[in-house]
Amino acid sequence: MEEMEYHNPVLLKETVDGLAIKPDGTYVDVTFGGGGHSSEILKRLGPEGKLFAFDQDKDALENAIDDDRFTLINENFRFIKRFLRFYGVRKVDGILGDFGVSSHQFDVADRGFSTRFEADLDMRMNQSGEISAYHVINEYDESDLRVMFLQYGELRNAPKLARAIVGARKEESLKTSVELKEVLKPFLPKHKEHKILAQIYQAIRIEVNQEIEALKEFLIQTTGLLDTKGRISLISYHSLEDRLVKRFIRSGMFEGEPEKDLYGNVSVPFKKVGGLIVPGEEEIKENNRARSAKLRIAEKI
C-alpha cells in the first residue's frame, strides 16, 4: 500500500468559517478525505458538539480521527439523510463539502485518476463500485460515449472521440490509460494536449462515479437536514458542479425558476452568505489543485 498522502485542504479557513460553528452544534463533512476540514471543525467544537463525516473511498478510513465527538461513515454522501438517521440525527447545524478528486486519489497511480501515470482503466472513488472506466470505455454505446464527452467534458469533438474509441475496441478491449491515450492521440493537439486529456478524464470519472446525480441528490437532502440558520459551505472544481450549487442556492432548483405566489414572492430554502470565494495567489502557488476551486456559502431560511 502506498503512503496515504493528502495535501492541505483548499480554502480551509474560509470553508470552515463559512459554517459559523456553534460549539454545541452538529456538523457534517461529506468529503472527509485526509480529514483536514474535519480536524479544523473539531477544533472549534466544544465537548457537546458532534461531527459526522462521509467518504466512500476506503483509503480515507486510514485517516479516521480518534475523538468521541467524531463519527466517520464509509458511504457516498448521496445517502446522507439515510445514514445520519441511522445515528439518530435528523437535523444538523452545518454541512461542508469539498467535491472532486482528492490529492491522494490523483497521486496513487493504480487508481487511474491522473493523466500522468500508466494504469488500468479504473477511476472508481468507491473501490467496490461495479462500474469502472474499463466498463465505460469498452461497453458503452457510441451515442452514450458521445453524450458523456459532450456533457461532462464539454468537448466539441465528442462525436469523433466516441467513434475512435468504438472503432479501436472492435480489435481488442482497451485496458490501460496508455492504450486509451494512443487511440485519442490524433485528437490531442500539442499545445492543448494536457487540457483536452484532462477534460476527457473528467468526463469518464464523472460518469463512473455518477458525480452529477450524487451531487443533485445530496443538495436536495440538505434543505430537510439543516436547521433554521444552518449553513452549507461547498467547494466545486468545475463549472458543471458550480453551476448546480449556484442555482440550488439561488432557487432551490437546478433548472427553471421557482413559482411566485399571488404577491410575486418566491419561496426559496437558502439565502446566500457573501459572494463567490476563490483562493488567493499564495494558496494556488502552494497547492496547484486550488486554482479552479470555487466556494459558495448559504444559510437555511
Describe this structure in words.
The chain has 301 residues and is of the alpha/beta class. It contains twelve helices and seven strands. A seven-stranded mixed beta sheet has the order 3-2-1-4-5-7-6, with helices on both faces. Helix 2 links the parallel strand 1 (26-29) and strand 2. Helix 6 (142-153) crosses helix 7 and helix 6 (142-153) crosses helix 9. The N and C termini lie far apart (46 Å). 39% of the residues are buried. The model has no long low-confidence stretch (mean pLDDT 93).
Give the key terms:
single chain, 301 residues, alpha/beta, Rossmann fold, DNA polymerase, domain 1, 2 domains, 7-stranded mixed beta sheet, 12 helices, 7 strands, 40% helix, globular
Write the layout of secondary structure elements.
Elements: H1 12-17, E1 26-29, H2 36-44, E2 50-54, E3 70-73, H3 80-86, E4 92-98, H4 103-107, H5 133-139, H6 142-153, H7 158-171, H8 177-184, H9 193-209, H10 211-225, E5 226-236, H11 239-251, E6 270-272, H12 281-286, E7 294-300
Parallel strand pairs: 1-2, 1-4, 2-3, 4-5
Antiparallel strand pairs: 5-7, 6-7
Helix pairs in contact: 6-7, 6-9, 10-11
